[in-house]
Amino acid sequence: MRIRVSDVLDLYAAGLSPDQILAELPDLEPDDLQAALSYAARELNHNTFRSDPGGGSQRARSQGCR
User: Fold this and answer.
1) What pTM was estimated for this model as a whole?
2) 8-state DSSP, 25
């Protein structure tokens, strides 16, 4: 069975604990939850472009939440 990373993230966002997610999605194992989080972090850590007030754009490297 294929389970989307977004489904796992939605359950985390809804406040479920890893144990609750595993109970909700019994085909998953604890390593699968970590893999979903790692994948999401890699996908969100990408180059972005910001507009500057002068109408141009600046290239910036996403640094994540700190």
Assistant:
1) 0.66
2) S
